[in-house]
Structure formats: C-alpha cells, structure tokens
Amino acid sequence: MNTLKITSLRTRIAFLLILVAMVVTFGAPGLAYSAQAPAPLVEDGIMQVMLFPAVDGSSTAVLVQYEIPSTTVLPARVRIPVPAQAHVGWVGEISLKTGPDTQRDYEIKNEGGREFVEFTLSESKTGQVDFSGLPLASEKGALNARLEWEQSSAAKTTVFEVRLPSKVHDVKISPKPQGSPDKNEYGETLYSLSSRGMKIGEKETITVSYREGAGDHNSLIQRGCRSRPLQH
User: Fold this and answer.
1) Beta partners for 114?
2) Distances 23 to 9, 15, 16, 17, 35 between C-alpha atoms, Å
C-alpha cells in the first residue's frame, strides 16, 4: 500500500476529531478567512471633478478622477461620490502608459444617505468614474448646466473644473474660474475652479451658461473616446 497517498481510516478519524475540537474551542478559522479580505481603503487622495456640458450634444457629463499617493501599495480601494441625477457609466483605472485604460467592477454604496462608487485599483494609482445623464437646459438661446456636488467620500483635496465644447461664447460660470482658461487639441476650453479640502457632507454647486457658435462642436461622443480630466 502506498502510505504517501492513502491515509488509514484510523488516521482520518483521529484528524477529524482534532479538527472538531479546534472548531469548538477557537471557532472555524477556515470559514472566517475563506473570503479574500478587501484591499485597504485610501482616503487621502486628490479628487478631480470635471463638469462637461453637451458631452453628447444634449446632456451633461461629470468625469471624476481619484489619484492616490504615489507611496500607496496596490491593490487599494477608492471611493468616488455619485452626483445627484447622474448615472454611472465607465469605471476603471487610468493607464499611465500608451495602452488602454482598464475597466473595473464596482459597487454603489450608501452611508448616511450619501452614495459613492467603490472599486479597487490594482495596476494604476489613478481611478476614474464617468457619470452621464445630467440635464442640459436651453433658455432664451443659452445652454445651462448645473452640478450639485456632495462630498460623500473622503479626499485630501477636491478640485473642480469645467470643460466646454469648442466654438461657444457668452460663457458664465459660477463659482468664478481661477486664472486664464486653457484650450486642448480639440478646441475645448478648460476652466479651473476651486481646489480645497472638503469634509464629508460638504456641498458645492457649479452652474454654467453659454451660447453655441456655428459649426461642429466636436463633442466627446463624436470623437468616440472618453476624456481624462488630469490630462489637458
């Protein structure tokens, strides 16, 4: 008989009795640790919130990135607030290389009536959630967008920005942008607003009004790609 592969019935019974005794005395460690422990939650990153009206010509998007400290060991969990009236679109990690970004599974959680998206970073120190579905209202020839933001998850700093399509004029933004706006290769204008630490539950309202010019607005959807707020 091959004693390396076949254990005697007596030995198996003795092992079972020892295991039962251990469970009675110490509980069932195998059951307690059968599920993989979640990655550590990182709450001291930089959250960048970008309001993008007319993302598809008729609605407004909110693109939110969360950049964790460079010293953070991966994997790491991050949380990004869900804006009012917004729908979760793409969720994932932003590649620092030329390759594609990586879409990730996520959960929408609620703590104290405040919703946030939670997911895990395993390859990159930057995560992003693309939200869609915010209204774009038209009034007297002007297009109006509004973001009601509530800080439902923690960050060291929260940065607010507005990105407008090309060929627009009569732009009005509140709070007032800081410094001069930038333009990217698509002709879109990038406005930097406030940058500060926000407590959980603290709120910020951003309003945007502008008029369209003639020609192709070269929207995000028309370009067939997503946007990266940190890469102007």
Assistant:
1) 111
2) 21, 12, 11, 10, 18
Indicate if the pLDDT at residue 73 is higher than 90.
yes
- Which residues contact residue 227 at a Cβ distance below 8 angstroms, ignoring those fewer than 6 apart? 50, 52, 63, 130, 163, 220
DSSP string, 46-77: EEEEEEETTSSSSEEEEEEEEE--TTPPSSEE
CB 193, CB 178: distance < 8 Å:
yes
**Which of 232, 229, 216, 110 lies closest to 166, judged by CA?**
216
Q: What's CA 5's distance to the chain center, in Å?
A: 51
Banded model confidence at residue 56, pLDDT cuts 50, 70, 90: confident
Indicate the average pLDDT of the chain.
83
Distance from C-alpha of 197 to C-alpha of 98, rounded to nearest angstrom: 32
Above 70 in pLDDT, residue 180? yes
